[in-house]
Amino acid sequence: MSLRAYLDFLTRCPTIEELWDAHTDRMAEYGFDRLIYGFTRYRTSTSLGDPEDFVILTNHSRAFTDEFLDGGLYFHAPMVRWALANDGACSWTALHQMIQQRTLTPAEERVLEFNKRLKVNAGYTVSFKSISARSKGAIALTAREGLTQQDIDAIWDEHGNDIKLMNDIAHLKILTLPYSAPNRGLTRRQREALEWVGDGKTMQDIAVLMGLTPATVEKHLRLARETLAVETTAQAVLKAAFTNQMFVLDA
Known about the structure:
2 domains; Beta-Lactamase
């Protein structure tokens, strides 16, 4: 598939699952057989937000994700630190330079030891530009076993512009598709109630429109708040909108 055909496919992809399956296959053609994509809308000066609110896509092994993601190693990863402070693409040659310059913290050194143990040795990180100070997205492209950083740098010299473009488009498309963390997906009734709130309807209006009692409408809104782990209905509307769970055809 040509670059143009692939980009056209990405822009038309109807689900994150289909996009991710295709994108991992495409990146593997360039030698990157393990990817991890992350995005947050709730970054602050001291936190990346609640991990359950992250958009995380990966085809890494469970052994890797259990410790890197669930164990919180990502917070100390040097290339995550780089991605938070920069936009664009960066060769993992930067890690070797950090080691030589002895600028790594003990926590960062433990991340590199973990990566080495899991054969995550060579690759590139692409950090996506954001217009919001609170949002940030990046993708780590890990080279398949047997490829050195020198090998992957040579591939990037030849195809880097195309690889970065494909990842930029994939990122922008992901932001438009519905996504819910495990156990945070809304039911049809919860979604409908939030949509009417977003339209400015009163509780009485929503009850009439949905053919329910006000008490039942409030129950759906309460369950929506619990599902989305927020305290107010306004926050629920905002979070549901952020994750494209409202006003979605065939949701």
